[in-house]
Specification:
With 251 residues, the chain is of the alpha/beta class. 39% of the residues lie in helices and 13% in strands. The strands form 2 sheets. Strands 2-6-1-7-8 form a 5-stranded parallel beta sheet, with helices on both faces. A hairpin with a 2-residue loop joins strand 4 and strand 5. Helix 1 crosses helix 7.
Length: 251
């Protein structure tokens, strides 16, 4: 099974993906971390777009709750996962995301990662239209910008070193939402007033409907002796065996 989860920042994508992966025994590929890792590497020296960077930069989908917990992002043998949220990385991230050559290289890397993991939840901004067009289920989460900004501040309230920038939904978000909304196995959820547990339940219910679609109502059949729309039916003939059985019981 493969599930894509898209949406603007702080809409609840990663929280949902981790919960689904925990329930369903899957891994989580947070595609945004790859972009941040490339931005991190670019801050340490010139990095031309292409696949050579990924010989020293490794992004491994994580299995929630696994022990021991493995690092998601390794660069030159060092776990850099916690270093990807600085203001400097946030600024460089915009440049990486705006570079078509880097977007192509990162997308290709994501496809290679998923080829090794048949059961994965991919999280991002355009997973449903790029790396997971054939997913079993597409989910798009959205929420009011003020609510998303509050969530991000709450998420990092104890981490003043982490950037908390949250902006409006982008044109890419709008395209992805429109695409998912027209998919028979797609689900668009506004999480403005939904707690994470309710969001998880809604998606699990949607998955259940996809795997076990409701059965069509039974076709009504006419019974002997019942009236039909074409007119009254003739009375049913008595059952000879019943009559014989009744006669034998008389004294």
């Amino acid at each position: 099974m493969r599930i894509s989860v898209d949406g603007p920042s702080a809409s609840g994508k990663t929280t949902l993906a981790v919960a689904l992966a925990s329930r369903l025994g899957m891994r989580v590929l947070d595609t945004g971390l790859t972009y941040r890792a490339v931005a991190f590497a670019a801050l340490r020296g010139p990095v031309p777009p292409g696949g050579r960077l990924f010989t020293v930069l490794r992004h491994e989908p994580v299995a929630p709750g696994a022990r021991p917990a493995l690092p998601a992002i390794v660069y030159h043998g060092e776990d850099i996962t916690d270093a990807l949220w600085s203001a400097e990385v946030e600024e460089q991230l915009r440049l990486v995301a705006a570079e078509p050559a880097w977007r192509r290289a990162i997308t290709e890397q994501h496809r290679m990662i998923m080829s090794d993991h048949p059961r994965v939840v991919a999280v991002g901004r355009d997973c449903a239209t790029t790396i997971m067009a054939d997913a079993d289920c597409h989910v798009f989460l959205t929420a009011a910008e003020a609510v998303r900004r509050h969530r991000r501040y709450a998420q990092f309230r104890l981490r003043p070193d982490r950037a908390v920038t949250v902006g409006p939904a982008t044109g890419l978000d709008d395209v992805t939402r429109e695409h998912i909304g027209h998919q028979p196995h797609g689900l668009v959820l506004d999480t403005t007033f939904l707690p994470p547990s309710a969001t998880v339940r809604a998606v699990l219910h949607h998955l259940g409907d996809l795997q076990c679609p409701p059965k069509p109502p039974p076709t009504p059949t006419s019974r002997p002796g019942s009236r039909s729309s074409s007119g009254p039916s003739s009375p049913a003939s008595p059952d000879p065996s019943s009559a014989t059985a009744t006669a034998r019981t008389r004294p």
